[in-house]
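Incident log, support desk, overnight shift.

02:14 A customer reports that sequence design results differ from what the structure should imply. Their input is reproduced verbatim below. On-call engineer (initials T.W.) acknowledged and began investigating.
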């Protein structure tokens, strides 16, 4: 770690605040008289330079931030004679850069399968290919039990992250699956997810104060359906939403709902009644650019209930009462 100084940072400096590196965008000096405060205070606008937090902003009062430091400007290392890499190694590095650049622009060159620690079946690549063909991902994956819906979702997530089409991801699933999702994303794709629950809320408030909001600090989150539908989590989510209806660009990127049939409205004849889970998802989904629904049993036998579920997925293409057919292939089928 580079040496640090305790001086007041200037615009363009790299600082460490709350154990994360930031760049100073603006410094506003206090307008109060010098004798009013024990020491002059400065308001800093910061932007994150971490890979997982790129684009995040933070506003702090510099003098009261614990553990703050200004990082000295780093310099490029000087090559030592006799320690240069051989040409073959440089060639391999340039090939890797070139392949990565191709993957960002070419929808046919997938990278996620090669960056995951799993053996992938051919059919599991279908959702990734469909996702890249569409400007916006709206997929319902209805594979049979045991065919690897979680793996398919993980491949979509990783491909979108690699192509910078998504950064923030929220997984909504039954409470019994939250730990499974976190483990599989970490072990098979190297992606860290945080579970949003009462324990995380207490932890954040101990570390960052009582106004801490669990929806903002981490780019990839997992939450259970039944915790999400409560009044307090929804109020915290409402607090970070922009005023009015959802507009472009969306504030969040990818919404994944596992066992999505649990949030479908209850079907009774010609009518579908929203449950608390349905209401919560209906409130959240318009603020996400991409949506990925997973279920082995998406249709409960009531057409109104199923079309209401599709309306949550893509309200531009589906509406309650519509009977638009879905594409099918063997035992697996999807909407998108």
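02:41 Re-run completed on a clean worker. Output:
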């Amino acid at each position: 770690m580079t040496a640090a100084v305790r001086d007041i940072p200037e615009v363009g400096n790299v600082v460490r605040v709350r154990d994360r590196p930031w760049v100073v965008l603006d410094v506003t000096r206090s307008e109060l008289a010098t004798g009013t405060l024990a020491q002059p205070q400065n308001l800093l606008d910061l932007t994150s330079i971490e890979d997982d937090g790129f684009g995040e902003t933070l506003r702090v009062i510099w003098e009261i931030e614990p553990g703050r430091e200004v990082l000295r400007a780093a310099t490029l290392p000087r090559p030592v004679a006799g320690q240069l890499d051989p040409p073959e190694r440089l060639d391999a590095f340039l090939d890797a850069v070139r392949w990565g650049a191709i993957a960002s622009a070419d929808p046919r060159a997938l990278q996620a399968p090669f960056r995951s620690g799993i053996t992938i079946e051919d059919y599991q690549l279908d959702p990734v290919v469909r996702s890249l063909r569409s400007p916006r991902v709206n997929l319902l994956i209805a594979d049979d039990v045991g065919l690897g819906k979680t793996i398919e979702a993980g491949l979509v997530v990783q491909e979108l992250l690699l192509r910078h089409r998504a950064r923030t991801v929220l997984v909504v699933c039954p409470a019994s699956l939250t730990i499974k999702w976190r483990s599989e994303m970490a072990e098979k794709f190297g992606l860290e997810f945080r579970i949003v629950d009462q324990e995380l809320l207490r932890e954040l408030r101990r570390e960052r104060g009582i106004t801490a909001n669990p929806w903002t600090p981490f780019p990839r989150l997992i939450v259970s359906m039944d915790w999400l539908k409560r009044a307090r989590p929804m109020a915290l989510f409402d607090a970070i939403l922009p005023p009015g209806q959802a507009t472009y660009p969306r504030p969040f990127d990818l919404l994944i709902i596992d066992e999505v049939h649990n949030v479908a409205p209850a079907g009774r004849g010609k009518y579908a009644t929203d449950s608390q889970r349905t209401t919560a998802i209906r409130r959240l989904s318009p603020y996400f650019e991409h949506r990925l629904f997973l279920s082995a049993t998406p249709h409960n036998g009531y057409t109104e209930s199923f079309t209401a579920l599709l309306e949550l997925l893509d309200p531009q293409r589906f509406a309650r009462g519509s009977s638009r057919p879905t594409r099918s292939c063997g035992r697996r089928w999807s909407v998108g």
